[in-house]
Design brief:
Helix content is 33%, strand content 22%. The protein has 663 residues and is of the alpha+beta class. The chain folds into 3 domains: 25-175, Jelly Rolls; 191-315, Jelly Rolls (Sandwich), CATH 2.60.120; 335-662, Glycosyltransferase (Alpha/alpha barrel), CATH 1.50.10. β28 (487-488) and β29 form a beta hairpin. α1 (3-17) runs antiparallel to α16, α5 (354-369) crosses α8 (416-432) and α11 packs parallel to α13. The longest helix has 20 residues, at 643-662.
Length: 663
């Protein structure tokens, strides 16, 4: 099998497992008794807010549907005085196993899984907190990596909508009749009253938007002064619509602010997925001044009077329009996912295969377009509907690879959204990431080798786009700072972690940690201008590092999980990273041709031992924490088709192909 066939095999399997998705819109009933502890953390259901007069010993049932993107072993972490029923089976009872928090190890079927909490009011506390997770990562909501789980309302009128259903207050657990009374749907009364929908809105103008879904005459009774626009042109008098017409009504604030409408069956919001039985024909906004320009769009929050941000509501003050992407790969804000995306881009470049490149461009474009909206969603709902980590760029994992890919998107399409997103991430990096006295990034208590890749490839690309040498120099200075604290000059390889308080490195050469540094060095040296700071010093570091790595290559061509421990397992992702760096080094004249034998041996080892005939990838270490002890790294398990490995292998194959073309 040639390189092209290998790339196609792995890339096709990736797309089979990580199918492209589309942004879809759904209504959402905001329930004040639901909150989130943090993004991707506990959903808190505080029944005292719903039943403030509840007495100790009283009960309520809470039901939700966990909709899973795949069959998966999961952990449901629970806090509260509850009985938990999952798919008709009692899996936990606080009264029998009291615990501050309890991990329920179970299996989620692909599709819908029924989760019921029987909640008991005790000592004035009447709440349950829960979070469904991938088994390996308990306590982190499975919404952006490996698996996508949403908690949905079980009532038919709210099918597919985020939320829960709650019973009435019960004297006894056994009094439950199976009926859930919250949330309640509104009745269709064919009116838009902005004062009711937006009781706190500033400004003089409210907007209502709808579309014609069948030919009709639109009849509006104005309660306040209104202007009616159809497809952007103002209409006066009788208004006849044809299917597909887009209607916008601008209503001026008055004693009665809004309008009544007739023949509701001919209008609606066809792009919104909803099973609601009545109403919701219009989307609404308020908080604007007369004379301001207004554009109908569904991707960014609007800036309204008083410095507030707003997005579309429906016809009820608690009902919102929200965008979703039901995927754990496409358009999801996670560093490993971004590595997978980058690998697909490289596959498309090598093969001239448009569907791989289009996947990258489409996914990254959706992320760029909705980046600002997700900041708004965090403010409004606690946890965004997708790309959750975008709402909280407080660590390099949530900045670097996304910024790198935004720069790649900008270089491909020159879209303003991509550059704007990259610039915001750069500002977040400068504002949020702690540094040592010499300006090198750290994590307060530790410094990780991984963070070379989570920062420098982005910085170098952004510096090139802006023509700002200072940004490229910042990347070079980072690499010098990491070398100072993590490089083991006696072995010519890197420690994984530097512990700040102890001012010492762990001297454990974790394979992928070294891979991150090696790829970053080779990438930066290729893209930095020749006049960049420290480039000669970094070139010398790279050559010594490459020599240290080649000496530790295993007999099967792969490198080990702990590089200098041959009793640790052969690890796929670091092997592919070393291929990338060596290929770039040879191609750019930093390494001599003797490294080609190491590259060929590693390539042969990966394809024989880590990739099967269907394109599945094995031997990729799961996400790591850190330790002073090598045994910690040696016991970390591997994950099949993990994005840390699949995208990196595609990138490695792309580099081998480039090296072949040079020869």
């Amino acid at each position: 099998m040639g390189i092209n066939e290998e790339i196609k095999l792995i890339a096709d399997r990736m797309l089979e497992l990580r199918r492209p998705a589309q942004v879809e819109y759904r209504p959402y009933r905001k329930q004040d008794f639901i909150s989130f502890e943090d993004i991707l953390s506990y959903m808190r259901i505080d029944l005292m807010k719903l039943y403030p007069n509840a007495k100790d010993g009283e009960y309520a049932y809470v039901k939700t549907i966990l909709r899973s993107s795949d069959d998966y072993d999961i952990t449901i972490r629970v806090r509260g005085n509850v009985k938990v029923i999952f798919n008709s089976k009692v899996v936990y009872e606080y009264e029998k196993q009291p615990a501050a928090q309890y991990d329920i190890l179970t299996h989620a079927d692909k599709g819908d899984n029924e989760l019921i909490f029987v909640c008991r009011c005790s000592n004035g506390n009447f709440e349950v907190d829960f979070v469904p997770s991938v088994r390996h990562y308990p306590g982190m909501w499975a919404r952006d990596y490996l698996l996508n789980i949403r908690a949905l309302c079980p009532l038919s009128d709210f099918d597919g909508e985020d939320g829960v259903a709650v019973s009435e207050l019960l004297v006894s657990e056994n009094d439950f009749d199976g009926q859930y009374i919250y949330p309640q749907n509104k009745t269709d009364n064919n009116q838009i009253r902005f004062n009711d929908i937006f009781p706190d809105a500033d400004g003089d103008i409210g907007y209502a938007y709808t579309e014609c879904i069948s030919d009709m005459e639109l009849r509006i009774k104005k309660l306040s002064e209104c202007r009616i626009f159809v497809n952007g042109a103002e209409r006066i008098g009788r208004i006849y619509l044809t299917k597909g017409d887009k209607v916008l009504i601008a209503a001026r604030r008055g004693r009665r602010w809004g309008f009544l409408y007739e023949h509701a069956e001919g209008i609606g919001v066809p792009f919104m997925k909803s099973t609601r039985s009545g109403g919701d024909r219009w989307l609404t906004l308020a908080g604007f001044n007369e004379g301001e320009s207004f554009e109908v769009q569904f991707e960014k929050p609007y800036n309204t009077v008083g410095g507030r941000r707003a997005f579309w509501k429906l016809e009820n003050k608690n009902d919102y329009l929200r965008p979703y992407v039901n995927s754990c790969f496409y358009a999801q804000w996670f560093y490993a996912v971004m590595v997978g995306h980058y690998g697909l881009k490289k596959a498309g470049e090598t093969l001239g295969e448009k569907r791989y490149t289009d996947y990258f461009l489409s996914s990254m474009s959706d992320m760029a377009r909705f980046y600002m909206y997700m900041q708004y969603e965090r403010e409004m709902f606690g946890m965004p509907s997708f790309m959750q980590r975008a709402a909280k760029p407080v660590d390099l994992d949530s900045i670097g690879t996304m910024g790198m890919n935004m720069c790649e998107l900008y270089n491909s399409r020159h879209t303003g959204d991509a550059l704007a997103c990259a610039l915001r991430l750069y500002e977040a990096m400068k504002r949020n990431i702690p540094v040592f006295e010499d300006g090198t990034f750290n994590r307060l208590e530790t410094m990780w080798a991984d963070d070379t890749f989570m920062s420098c490839p982005f910085l170098v690309r952004l510096g090139n786009i802006l023509g700002d040498r200072g940004i490229s120099d910042l990347a070079a200075k980072q690499l010098i700072g990491f070398k100072k604290r993590l490089y083991m000059s006696d072995k010519n390889i890197f420690s994984h972690i530097y512990f700040v308080r102890e001012q010492t490195a762990n001297r454990v050469p974790w394979g992928r940690g070294n891979g991150w540094v090696f790829v970053t060095l080779s990438d930066a040296l290729e893209l930095m201008p020749d006049t960049a700071a420290h480039k000669a010093e970094l070139s010398e570091l790279f050559r010594g590092f490459a020599d240290g790595i080649r000496r530790l290559q295993g007999e099967n061509g792969l490198w080990h999980q702990v590089l200098d421990r041959s009793d640790s397992y052969e690890e796929t992702s670091c092997t592919a990273m070393f291929i990338i760096g060596m290929c770039k080094g040879v191609r750019n004249g930093l390494l001599d041709n003797s490294y080609i034998e190491n590259i060929k041996h590693a390539h042969d080892g990966i394809m024989k031992r880590a990739v099967d005939q269907k394109g599945n990838v094995y031997g990729v270490c799961m996400g790591s924490s850190c330790s002073m002890e090598p045994e910690y790294y040696m016991q970390l398990g591997t994950v099949e088709n993990d994005d840390h490995g699949t995208g990196i292998i595609l990138w490695a194959l792309n580099e081998i192909k480039k090296l072949d073309s040079v020869e």
